[in-house]
UniProtKB/TrEMBL annotation:
<dbReference type="Pfam" id="PF04577">
    <property type="entry name" value="Glyco_transf_61"/>
</dbReference>
<keyword id="KW-0808">Transferase</keyword>
<keyword id="KW-0328">Glycosyltransferase</keyword>
<feature type="domain" description="Glycosyltransferase 61 catalytic">
    <location>
        <begin position="169"/>
        <end position="268"/>
    </location>
</feature>
<dbReference type="InterPro" id="IPR049625">
    <property type="entry name" value="Glyco_transf_61_cat"/>
</dbReference>
<dbReference type="InterPro" id="IPR007657">
    <property type="entry name" value="Glycosyltransferase_61"/>
</dbReference>
<protein>
    <recommendedName>
        <fullName>Glycosyltransferase 61 catalytic domain-containing protein</fullName>
    </recommendedName>
</protein>
<dbReference type="GO" id="GO:0016757">
    <property type="term" value="F:glycosyltransferase activity"/>
</dbReference>
<keyword id="KW-0325">Glycoprotein</keyword>
Length: 347
């Protein structure tokens, strides 16, 4: 992914604006900075983020709504989480025109993911797909729209995934049966990764979190699930695993595209390696689902490592040793934040 200052923000942004806007309530423990990030940062698209018109004979009555994705408004959509950025943005556009037949149009020369996760999401959306091989797209009178810009997730270019929270909610309703979670049982999920950014002390971390839960006035009304690689599951299994959790802790990575399936008020912590702090990507998706978000990282961002592809690749590939005491303290805050969120929803 090629980045430029407009898509990342500047080093001055990091020093002057970062802590004021991103981390107004930061706290530190054993070298880790824990934050409730993205304060004041919008997390939803608006229709103004799209270029929208009508294609077809003059005065025609549209029967289709087409969403165009090309190299100008998408980042490397051959990778399934970046494909999901385009899919979700188009899904929101389609829902703006519920009586029209939705069609996804892939621009010439744009490679798109064929991963099982991507294909399963298409099936859930029930969207017709076309690839533009010539200058003209598919036939028929259509409302045609496309996102104006692409966002990288970095400071100043935070990603927005949907126009409305209800867009994520509709996908959840399509996938899940209406069943209430078990009352009184707090389900905590710890996700790891098989490759880079793996939490190398995950077993110790899980054991410490279990002790924290037992001492948090929860008696035996909790459970903790620890999964080595969410990618070992099918699309539906990944979604259900996330959806049933009340608290989720995960390193930054593609598996967190599944944050879209989180229930409202789920408390989510994303962990980052040093010099790769990018909460403006998957935590923005968690916000769209209605989750309460937390972030854990070490130190300020060295933007020279973001702009340089070789250095960026090196820092984002580092495994993570997450301090267990910092994790335990954060879990208590996450449990309290979840209860506070649930209380405000019920009012």
């Amino acid at each position: 992914m090629k980045l430029n200052p407009k898509e990342v923000g500047t080093e001055r942004d990091q020093s002057d604006r970062f802590w004021r806007q991103y981390a107004p309530d930061e706290w530190r423990q054993n070298g880790w900075r824990i934050t409730r990030p993205l304060a004041g940062v919008p997390f939803l698209l608006t229709i103004k983020d799209y270029t929208v018109g009508v294609r077809g004979p003059h005065g025609c009555e549209p029967t289709y709504v087409d969403c165009l994705v090309d190299q100008n408004n998408s980042f490397s959509p051959v990778h399934f989480p970046h494909a999901a950025e385009a899919q979700f943005a188009c899904w929101s556009l389609f829902r703006q025109h519920p009586t029209l037949h939705p069609r996804f149009i892939l621009g010439r020369g744009t490679q798109f993911s064929s991963a099982p996760w991507t294909e399963a999401l298409w099936a859930l959306m029930e969207v017709e797909r076309h690839m533009v091989e010539q200058r003209r797209g598919p036939q028929g009178c259509a409302v045609i729209g496309q996102r104006r810009n692409r966002n990288s997730g970095w400071l100043g270019s935070e990603q927005s995934w949907f126009i409305a929270r209800s867009d994520a909610g509709e996908l959840q309703q399509r996938l899940f049966k209406r069943s209430a979670p078990e009352r009184g049982i707090v389900k905590v999920g710890l996700i790891n990764r098989a490759g880079s950014r793996r939490v190398v002390n995950a077993d110790l971390l899980a054991a410490r979190l279990i002790r924290t839960l037992a001492r948090h006035n929860l008696s035996r009304s909790y459970s903790l699930s620890h999964i080595n690689d969410l990618g070992d599951f099918s699309f539906e299994e990944q979604a259900h695993w996330v959806h049933e959790k009340d608290v989720i802790i995960a390193p930054h990575g593609a598996q967190n595209t599944n944050f879209v399936w989180a229930r409202r008020c789920t408390s989510i912590l994303e962990i980052y390696p040093a010099n790769y702090f990018i909460p403006g990507l998957y935590l923005q998706l968690a916000r769209a689902a209605g989750a309460v978000i937390f972030a854990a990282h070490q130190g300020r961002q060295d933007m020279s490592k973001v702009f340089n592809y070789r250095l960026r690749r090196a820092v984002r590939s580092r495994n993570i040793f997450f301090d267990v005491e910092a994790a335990a303290s954060t879990l208590k805050l996450m449990l309290d934040a979840r209860l506070q969120c649930l209380g405000s929803v019920e009012m």
